[in-house]
């Protein structure tokens, strides 16, 4: 009798161990497979996008240059869609943290807010150029990342638009006095 109880107990224990292992495997399938580089990309990209929208809103309010205003409207449209894409990527990868504008970008925006006319236009366009150079470098790096395939696809799909923004900003920069 004691032997059969031991056998039943061992079988029960093995069954429970197997159930725990199966549950652990199921949970691993549901978790995001984003590494630290992928997380950095998501946070940096989303934060930069939010800063671009906010700075571009200032450009619409503060600039008198129609070319700068039209460019700012384009930036708001494109980067608002990009922010939505980042939110979807985060949801798809089970990431729930929220992103705010970092202190460096916030200081740039605050500096822009006090400038007027030509000084504002130059500072805004230079901010766009610098930010897009940094973001393009990040997107290119992530675009080559084989570990984060969904992020690599997103980065490669988005790069041409960012490059177009950079090229346009550089052109506008040459026309400002």
Commentary on this structure:
With 177 residues, this protein is mainly α. It contains six helices and no strands. The chain has helices at residues 2-30, 36-62, 66-92, 103-113, 117-143, 149-175.
Note the run of SSEs as H and E.
HHHHHH
Report the total helices: 6
Question: What is the CA-atom radius of gyration, in angstroms?
Answer: 25 Å
Q: Structural class, please?
A: mainly alpha
Write down how many β-strands occur, each being a DSSP E stretch of 2 or more residues.
0
- What share of the residues does DSSP label as strand, in percent? under 5%
Distinctive features:
177 residues; mainly alpha
Q: Could you give the topology of this structure?
A:
Elements: H1 2-30, H2 36-62, H3 66-92, H4 103-113, H5 117-143, H6 149-175
Helix pairs in contact: 2-3, 2-4, 2-5, 3-6, 5-6
Give a brief rundown of this model.
This protein has 177 residues and is an all-alpha fold.
């Amino acid at each position: 009798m004691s032997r059969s109880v031991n056998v039943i107990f061992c079988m029960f224990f093995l069954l429970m161990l197997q159930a725990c292992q199966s549950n652990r495997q199921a949970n691993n399938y549901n978790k995001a497979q984003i590494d630290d580089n992928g997380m950095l990309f998501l946070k940096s990209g989303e934060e930069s996008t939010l800063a671009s929208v906010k700075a571009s809103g200032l450009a619409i309010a503060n600039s008198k240059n129609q070319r700068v205003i039209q460019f700012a409207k384009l930036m708001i449209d494109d980067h608002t869609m990009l922010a939505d894409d980042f939110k979807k990527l985060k949801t798809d990868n089970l990431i729930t943290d929220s992103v705010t504008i970092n202190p460096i970008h916030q200081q740039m925006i605050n500096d822009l807010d006090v400038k007027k006319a030509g000084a504002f236009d130059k500072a805004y366009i230079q901010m766009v150029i610098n930010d897009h150079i940094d973001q393009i470098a990040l997107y290119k790096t992530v675009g080559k990342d084989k570990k984060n395939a969904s992020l690599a696809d997103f980065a490669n799909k988005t790069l041409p638009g960012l490059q177009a923004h950079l090229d346009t900003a550089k052109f506008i920069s040459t026309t400002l006095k």
